Amino acid sequence: MGSPNLFRRASAALFGLLMAAAVIPASPASADVQTMGGTGPYDAEYVTTLRLRNHTVYRPVNLPAGEQLPIVAWGNGACRADGTWFENILTEFASHGFLVIANGRPGGTGSTDAEMLTEAIDWAVAENTRLFSPYRGRLDTGSIAVMGQSCGGLETYEVADDPRIDTTVLWNSGLLTDRDNHLLTRLHAPIAYFTGGPGDIAYANAVDDYGRLPRGLPAFMGHLDVGHFGTFAQPNGGEYGRVGVAWLKWQLKGDQQARQQFVGPDCGLCSTEWDVQSKNLT
User: Fold this and answer.
1) How sure is the predictor about 34, in pLDDT bands with cuts at 50, 70 and 90?
2) Which residues pair with 247 in a beta bridge?
3) Are 225 and 195 in contact (CB under 8 A)?
4) CB 134, CB 157: distance < 8 Å
5) pLDDT higher than threshold 70 for residue 230
């Protein structure tokens, strides 16, 4: 794992708690609150579990029969330990048949670290085989994504060398210093960057990282002129939710219609308000 100073620098220099809290609404404080919704085929909710005390789990209310759910581990902006801070977009992901595990309890306080993403994955893999687990045999442990916003994106870099990870996604995020460029050399899975355009404080960092990726690594970069805090607070995560679902469907479910949003000169996002580029995508 990288130095803890990476996260202290992230909070102080680029992804401060005060600035973030001023833009994205706070979440309910109660750990018992559940959310239902999303545009996918399943009503979605969030739950907590004593087996993973410091996380929030987003899932279809009724686990679909005959379908295994891919796993998504999520790191919050500002490395904030509030598992419901990004509930709109995470509920949207879950409604399309994904098990999403966010760092932090509902309405939680304090800070997260990269190890919490690994803990989330470890828990999901164990639950898939644990006797009497509601997730037993219901999870696709061979299809795992790790993603995060802002400081949470830096957390994803820290764990992205995990061989179980099938795709890495950074939202409004990028390395803060060239001293951390070694993290890029450890990437092995297709990666996507989604930023808020030139007005996003992380825009230049993300662009620089994209240019330094290992040769041959499949990568996508999309810029939408919405600033550093994106569309997360909009219903279902807004445009970020729509595009994030498409990326997950392609990368973790092999959905070829979703693939068309990202691949080729006539890709679905190519003729929209998104500014996109890609390399090594097939």
Assistant:
1) low
2) none
3) no
4) no
5) yes
Specify the pTM: 0.90
- Yes or no: domain 5-279 corresponds to CATH 3.20.10.10: no
Q: Which of the two residues, 6 and 22, has the higher pLDDT score?
A: 6
How many angstroms separate the CA atoms of 76 and 87, rounded? Answer: 10
Q: H or E stretch including 251?
A: helix 238-253
- Beta sheet of 52-60, edge-to-edge order: 44-49, 52-60, 99-103, 69-75, 139-149, 167-171, 191-195, 219-223, 275-279
In sequence order, what E strands does 4-160 have?
44-49, 52-60, 69-75, 99-103, 139-149
Contacts of 14-21 with CB under 8 Å at 24 or more apart are 14/150, 14/151, 14/176, 14/201, 14/202, 14/205, 15/77, 15/78, 15/79, 15/150, 15/151, 15/173, 15/202, 16/78, 17/78, 17/80, 20/77, 20/78, 20/80, 20/150, 20/229, 21/78
Q: How are beta strands 191-195 and 167-171 bridged, if at all? A: parallel
Report the Cα–Cα distance between both ends of the chain, in Å, rounded: 31
Q: What share of the chain is helix, strand, coil (3-state, %, to 5)?
A: 30, 20, 45
Q: Is the confidence at residue 124, as pLDDT, over 60?
A: yes
Question: Are the C-beta atoms of 31 and 107 separated by less than 8 Å?
Answer: yes
* SS3 call for 38: coil
